[in-house]
Design goal:
The chain has 367 residues and is α/β, with parallel strands linked by helices. The protein contains ten helices and 18 strands. It has two domains: 144 residues, Four Helix Bundle (Hemerythrin (Met), subunit A); 205 residues, Rossmann fold, CATH 3.40.50.10470. The protein binds 5-S-methyl-1-O-phosphono-5-thio-D-ribulose (MRU).
Amino acid sequence: MNVTIRGRTSHFRTVAFDAEQNRVQLIEQRLLPHEFKMVATPDFRATARAIQDMIVRGAGAIGAAAAYGLAQGARAFRGRDLERFHRHVEAVYQTLKVARPTAVDPVNAMNQARITMKAGETVEEQQALALAAAEEFANHDVQHCEDIGRHGAKLIRSGMKVLTHCNAGWLAFVDIGSATAPMYAAQAQGKKFHVYCDETRPRSQGATLTAWELGQQGISHQIIADNAAGHLMQRGEIDLVIVGSDRTLGRTGEVANKIGTYTKAVLAKRHGIPFYVAIPLSTIDWNLRSGFKIPIEERHEDEVLGAWGITSRGRREYVRVANPGSSAFNAGFDVTPAELITGIITPAGIVKPKDLWAKRRQLGHAS
Ligand code: MRU
């Protein structure tokens, strides 16, 4: 996406790879919207930490970061012994896999890379194939988001007010985004609409990242407190909800997404407002048979007990908000059942959540 800083516009991908230095390049998302900075991870452990600490976050972006991290780890191996190489790659895979457990994109991306690597007969060939697979994942991610935009733009009419939750924008992917893709495509078609961004406590990805992205793109928007959506829906101020997903179950149509999504889906149902989920194919989990089996990441309680912000002197600081001595529970995601979802916007078209399994061949399932 194009980013304009102090009047200069440049194009960035959220995640990229420097093959010469064997480094993964990332936008330091924790500093946004106050500072735009690129960072590079020197090895796969640092890449896993960047995923865990949310330097890079969002399903597609951490999928690409994990795929590049796998290639980075594989390429750091010295020697020709294939058996030792495979043990090393397995350790790299496990390190990256546990960094963020709810999103399935990292696992899907790395599994595909490992299948691709099998075509190589030597360590060197497999190392090259790992990087090629990561590049392919990143390029597909961009293509999928573009296709989501094409299908989803039809849902947006001029004058609409659209609600989104968390950040499923280009920062959450390699480029373009999932939930934002229909917005960017509708804007390109000349449609004028307004977006409400849920603030999305505790980490405030809506207030910081989505608002910044939409501002960069010149889309009319306002941040609302997480508990304000019901009030707006009741007054007819929201026409459409579009969110992203970290894991969508292909067998049941259940959607894991940032905590608070389920609440918005219940509210949308109550008010008869269409509720859509936008996903690339790498977000589909074809194996799990129940949303209760999705591993829900629990993050540090400090995220709930306080907040990060910028002081008047431009310093980034954490302040404690909550009662001293109180503790907090901090689940990062929740699961929305299929019956609350109007449709899933995929790169292959808009599908009813219950129809995902029947359409699995079109949606990238192997059999
Ligand atoms: O914890 P995060 O910021 O990595 O959460 C991911 C999200 O931003 C959302 O849940 C998003 O809607 C899905 S990622 C495309």
